[in-house]
Design brief:
Residues 48-68 are annotated as: Disordered. This protein is mainly α. The chain has 2 helices and no strands. It starts with a helix and ends with a helix.
Length: 68
């Protein structure tokens, strides 16, 4: 199963929302730690997505060039 950056970013938003809605400091801290973890995972996936797009673009350019 491949997870997209949208999934991770949705979790980031959810944790942020939960952190802002609570009055309990321990719950807020937990939500903010979870938000940071989800953001790190999203960043990793976004970097991979960017790398794949760049590789595809590079491959397309190479295929358009004549040999020699």
């Amino acid at each position: 199963m491949s997870v997209t950056s949208d999934f991770y970013l949705a979790r980031v938003a959810q944790c942020d929302r939960e952190a802002s809605e609570t009055d309990l400091s321990n719950v807020r801290d937990r939500c903010l730690r979870a938000k940071a973890a989800w953001q790190a995972m999203a960043d990793r996936v976004l970097k991979g997505e960017g790398n794949r797009k760049q590789q595809a673009a590079d491959k397309a350019v190479q295929q358009e060039r004549p040999f020699g």
